[in-house]
Design brief:
24% helix, homodimer, alpha+beta, DNA-binding, Arc Repressor Mutant, subunit A, seven-stranded mixed beta sheet
Chain lengths: 225, 225
DNA sequence: CCAAAAGTGTTGCGGTTACACCCATGT
DNA sequence: ACATGGGTGTAACCGCAACACTTTTGG
């Protein structure tokens, strides 16, 4: 990794930061890394980094996501650009933030020289983060909640096959409210966005549940809730 | 104006571009300037410019808005950041775009060395613009339509006092559909966001209309339509 | 047989839509 | 008197919310 002397920059530089969400045990989590250098040494921050002059900003976000977490091919969309003058104590950095959604799996996260810890954090247990990254996460949560209500984006948090209860719990966790089971099933089925497979869950100490799949695993605008 | 040699930049630089909307004669218009230099000489483009290292990105947008159009204190919000590598033929420029809303008035626009024409353009009559500014405008229109439906943002396109018909026409123009007059009045009144003044329109060859004011001239989230 | 989660319909309410005529003013 | 836009109420419909019991499996 080439060392960067920020003081050499006469102009604002551009970075990308990615808020990566997943849901584990009915809790919304965000992926953070613990920096071991710079003014926020020892603090948890969002994965991200500078935008190379030869890559698009979107590519930069995808690249940093991949490099720091190993994740790729997950849902990624631009969130907002943070451009306050003093948001980075080392220089003028404008951050184009992104938010990403990952299904809950056993990921093998990498560490590098810049950080030696990387972990999921419950959004309720986030302490003081470096930079303005708490603001970024807050905004990302608002965006996520909102998109959940008017798109099928939830598919990107679920595995390919899931039960109706999995789906409902996802909404309940993120929207932080209970939803009536019968009304929920009625609504989702009427939207014609998922289809029943001929498989069922096995091994539970109770009645097996049908497994469903999304008909389209790409973003669609649908009034879900 | 200091001359900028783009080739000197080793890193991407940041610019802001502003999509300024108004409604004139039941048409949605956007304010464009005609550049007289650079690769898009003679083309219409959005007002905007580079972000200074000592100003926030938000300030930069407000400043360029003011400098190039004389407009200030109007509604302004960040839209999206455009970061493709080749969007500016002279160098690597990432544009943080904004959209602004102005009531229809007789503005005295300024011209500078960089452009000698500045004018409102109907969004239906926009030809080939410089840069990716058509994309920016398209996105801004989507955002505007959407915000019109779930906020009181329309206040920023109207004068302080307006008739119910003015208000309804604003919606009909931007959303591009007819709205039932009685249902519209019922809905707006039930939201309790405007109040009747004791004035009426004068001089029309017909029954005078009551004038209304917004109770709050700041952004609120309300299900309007 | 018991525990645990899956699965299934009906009713009432409230908000949205559709729809047509009289009113106040200027010419 | 007539042309023009201002201003008003009601009924049907539809989507949403509230609500409880039976089924299927494993232990």
């Amino acid at each position: 990794m080439k060392k960067i002397n920020w003081k050499n920059f006469k102009h604002a530089v551009i970075a990308t930061d990615v808020v990566i969400f997943t849901v584990i045990d009915n809790e919304l989590k965000v992926l953070l890394i613990k920096t071991n250098k710079g003014p926020f040494k020892g603090k948890w921050v969002l994965p991200g980094g500078l935008v190379n002059i030869k890559e698009s900003v979107d590519n930069s976000a995808a690249k940093h996501l991949k490099n720091k977490t190993g994740l790729s091919n997950i849902y990624l969309e631009q969130l907002y650009s943070f451009g306050e003058v003093n948001r980075d104590p080392l220089g003028r950095v404008v951050s184009v933030s992104y938010f990403a959604l990952a299904p809950n799996k056993e990921y093998q996260f990498k560490t590098t020289k810049e950080y030696d810890e990387i972990a999921w954090h419950s959004i309720n247990e986030i302490k003081k983060l470096g930079y303005d990254h708490e603001d970024i996460i807050k905004l990302a949560i608002i965006r996520l909640k909102s998109k959940l209500e008017y798109t099928n984006i939830v598919y990107s948090l679920l595995p390919t096959e899931f039960t109706f209860t999995d789906l409902q719990k996802m909404y309940e966790t993120i929207l932080e409210r209970k939803i009536d089971k019968r009304n929920f099933r009625k609504k989702i089925l009427s939207l014609d966005i998922i289809k029943k497979t001929n498989k069922k869950t096995i091994g539970g100490a109770n009645r097996p549940a049908h497994l469903y799949k999304f008909k389209n695993r790409k973003l669609e605008v649908v009034e879900i809730i």
